[in-house]
Task: inverse folding
């Protein structure tokens, strides 16, 4: 046997062994907490009203660092009891009992949501005062985290409170009696101003004449006084004439003055009634203000009750935490094409990858595969034809041209600056499967990947192995072998792809602008 004939099976076997070893390493790493090693553990328990999203071996974190796991979850009365293991070098304090129900400055444990798709964990704070908790003690302080549903419920409660407040204000200031009183007051003020304006306009010439006559009298008196006693007779005659003239003017103006005074008196009467109505309205406003200050009614409850303000602040904090988790989520869009040399066909893949952090990702792919989907149906047929067996088995293989999809959960671990190992599992091209990734160089420019899936389509599962090299920040080339362990279906392929993350998309939109209709 020639050496070349032996090398190909040897390489395939070596690749399979490497893939199995990487898969075993990934499963072993994912199933335990590598950060705790052989550290001694202490066991505690606590109670929750709701443990939705938590599972056995879910992680426990403190300041973002894993410090323990969940050992067991079971029902204790009408609450859920959660048994946990925490690193023995972490000291937990019981706290000081308080009337509110929680131990002040004691250890607390809270259920928190790590991502928007429902990945939950427990957040632990050790506390600072009180008795040191021993192995087997209970952590009394539990804090319930706010998810999207609770956030929306609280927003609905605030909306209903605001609607009640606006309804009360509309009832006080929007009634027919209040509107009629305000309109009557404005109407009376308008009549008073019009009457005063009419009086001044009508008597203006006569008042000017009176002022001029008084000025003339003053000048004449001064002149007579200067001339001396010899002009007394003349002064008396002039004074008599002036008096007669003044009497004539006053006699002519008496009727108009009396009419003006009567009009002014009526205006003042209406003004008094308007002021009385205004005082009544101001008294009502004062009564309402006093009730609000005393906390009566919906408005008073909204202004004076600190619970509403605390609830609003809590909702804003929860909303801020929720928005921060969403904004920290990195989104990567990928499009690649592969040319299969044996079948001389193209395979196209559109991928969407969500990364909450560098060690975890969720991947969705939409695959246009020239192989389509193959289904095998075996039937037992009874026949009355004498020329054939009365009972025979018929197998039909059907291949349909339809799209496939992949939905995977992956984790990766940085072992060195130049080496990162990762694994994934889930649905691969509409079938269950697992995969592994090896990233080389600090920026993972060179990656080697392998997927094992489609366990029922052929004699052996479908093993696909390939490598990719990223020569630009957003572009890469790839090549590999598809269906390695099925010789009759084995094929080689080469391909290329482009990849954009959310930062690239923001830069692209900033440069080109957002299209508008």
Result:
């Amino acid at each position: 046997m020639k050496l070349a004939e032996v090398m190909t099976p040897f390489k395939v076997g070596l690749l399979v062994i490497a893939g199995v070893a990487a898969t075993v390493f990934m499963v072993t790493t994912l199933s335990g907490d590598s950060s705790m090693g052989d550290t001694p553990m202490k066991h505690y328990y606590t109670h929750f009203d709701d443990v939705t999203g938590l599972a056995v071996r879910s992680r426990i974190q403190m300041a973002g660092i894993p410090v323990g796991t969940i050992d067991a979850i079971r029902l204790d009365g009408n609450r859920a009891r959660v048994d946990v293991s925490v690193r023995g070098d972490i000291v937990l304090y019981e706290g000081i009992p308080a009337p509110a129900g929680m131990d002040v400055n004691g250890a607390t444990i809270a259920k928190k949501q790590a991502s928007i798709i429902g990945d939950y964990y427990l957040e632990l704070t050790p506390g600072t005062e009180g008795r040191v908790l021993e192995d087997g003690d209970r952590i009394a302080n539990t804090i319930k985290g706010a998810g999207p549903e609770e956030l929306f419920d609280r927003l609905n409660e605030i909306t209903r409170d605001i609607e009640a407040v606006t309804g009360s204000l509309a009832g006080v200031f929007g009634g027919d009696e209040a509107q009629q009183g305000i309109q009557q007051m404005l109407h009376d003020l308008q009549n008073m101003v019009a009457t005063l304006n009419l009086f001044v306009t009508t008597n203006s010439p006569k008042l000017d004449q009176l002022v001029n006559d008084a000025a003339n009298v003053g000048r004449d008196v001064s002149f007579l006084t200067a001339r001396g006693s010899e002009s007394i007779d003349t002064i008396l005659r002039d004074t008599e004439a002036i008096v007669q003239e003044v009497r004539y003017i006053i006699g002519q103006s008496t009727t108009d003055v009396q009419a003006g005074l009567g009009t002014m008196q009526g205006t003042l009467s209406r003004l008094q009634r308007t002021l009385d109505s205004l005082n009544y309205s101001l008294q009502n406003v004062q009564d309402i203000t006093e009730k609000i200050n005393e906390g009566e009614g919906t408005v008073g409850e909204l202004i004076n009750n600190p619970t509403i303000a605390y609830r609003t602040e809590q909702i804003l904090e929860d909303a801020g935490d929720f928005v921060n988790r969403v904004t920290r989520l990195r989104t990567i869009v990928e499009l690649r094409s592969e040319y299969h040399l044996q079948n001389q066909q193209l395979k196209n893949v559109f991928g969407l990858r969500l990364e909450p952090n560098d060690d975890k990702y969720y991947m969705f792919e939409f695959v246009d595969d020239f192989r389509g989907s193959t289904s095998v149906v075996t039937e037992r047929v009874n026949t009355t034809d004498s020329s054939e067996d009365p009972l025979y088995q018929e197998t039909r293989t059907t291949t349909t041209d339809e799209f496939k999809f992949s939905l995977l959960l992956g984790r990766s671990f940085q072992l060195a600056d130049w080496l990162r190992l990762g694994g994934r599992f889930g649905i691969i091209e509409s079938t269950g499967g697992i995969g592994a990734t090896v990233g080389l160089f600090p920026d993972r420019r060179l990656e080697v990947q392998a997927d094992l899936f489609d366990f029922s389509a052929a004699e052996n599962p479908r093993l696909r192995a390939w490598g990719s090299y990223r020569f630009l920040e957003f572009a890469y080339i790839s090549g590999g072998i598809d269906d390695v362990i099925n010789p009759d279906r084995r094929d080689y392929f080469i391909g290329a792809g482009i990849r954009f993350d959310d930062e690239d998309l923001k830069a692209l939109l900033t440069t080109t602008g957002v299209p508008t209709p």
